[in-house]
Amino acid sequence: MSYIISKKVFLEKLVERCKLRGFSPQTIKSYNFHVSSFLDFLDKSRLNLNQEGVKSYLLSQNKARNTIRLSHMAIRFFFLEVLKKPLTPEEIPLMKKENKLPKVISKEKIKLMIDSCENLKHRLIIKFLYSSGLRLSELLNLRRSDVDFDNNLILVRQGKGAKDRMTLLSPNLKDDLLKYYSNYEFKTNHIFEGREGKYSKKSVQKILERLGKKIGMNIHPHMLRHSFATHLLENGTDLRYIQKLLGHSSSTTTEIYTHVANNQLKNIKSPLDNV
After folding, report:
1. Active site includes 226?
2. Which of 19, 124, 192, 248 fits a 20 to 30 Å CA distance from 79?
3. Catalytic pick from 111, 222, 240, 259?
4. Is residue 160 annotated as part of the catalytic site, yes or no?
């Protein structure tokens, strides 16, 4: 059975259902990609659009566990919302999530990154990601009106899960930000602009890639968010406040930082010390 003719219709319906559910553009893009790959697999392998086809596709994927989980969730949504044929969890169980400890950058290396950053805009990007715990998408969507200089707060609009929240504006960042405002001619309401509207994800990733080489690490934006949470915890900030600043729905998500915070671990003595 060929799905080439139906594929376009299927994907259009998939995107429509995702939008009706209020999914983020990133989730819609991801679901569209995974379902498209699944349909291509069926067409090439001549398998049917059923549970056996799904099982064969997932078993054929030689990818990271969390990538396969996401692919499974996208296909499950497709069967439920578009085909109206829910997959049986007993027949095709969702693979267990791979739990990795977050990678954290030391305070010393973060300072080195900031000090070695001569470009004011680039330095501000590093400071925002680290001092406020912003996700990359939240940073790029940040508007000048979202910054409350009087109360040292930042309003994060429609973060993950379509939720607004408040996070910190570091006094250490304010002088650079005001200097940036006075020397930059804005064309939009966004703090960080590119040639065509707001700054791009790729531009930020290139900045971090270049700075990462200076400190001997492969840096991605989320590592600065992880570092923000871990260093707050090490400084004695209550986990509940860190949860709110990060915008986590569950405290369980925030608790992972207790496994990488070093302040308490350093005070624990090995049993060998008492032998």
Report:
1. no
2. 248
3. 222
4. yes
257 labelled catalytic: yes
Q: What is the mean pLDDT of residues 190-197?
A: 87
Cα separation, 117 vs 66, in Å, equals 34
Mean pLDDT of the chain: 89
Per-residue pLDDT at 1:
44
Would residue 248 show up in a list of annotated catalytic residues for this protein?
yes
Record the pTM: 0.75
Q: Which residue has the higher pLDDT, 274 or 213?
A: 213
Query: What's the DSSP call for residue 143?
Result: B
* 190 in active site: no
Q: Please state which CATH number belongs to domain 107-265.
A: 1.10.443.10
Q: Catalytic: 222?
A: yes
Angle at 212 between CA 208 and CA 218, to 5 degrees: 95
The CA-based diameter of the chain, rounded to the nearest angstrom, is 73
CA dihedral 54, 57, 58, 59 (to 10 degrees): 120
Q: What is the CATH number of domain 4-81?
A: 1.10.150
Q: Boundaries of CATH 1.10.443.10 in the chain?
A: 107-265
Per-residue model confidence as pLDDT tens digits over 255-273: 888 877 776 666 666 665 7
| Parts of the chain belonging to CATH 1.10.150 | 4-81
- Those residues whose C-beta lies under 8 Å from the C-beta of residue 136, and which sit 6 or more positions away, are 129, 201, 204, 221, 222
Residues 257 and 233: beta-carbon distance below 8 Å:
yes
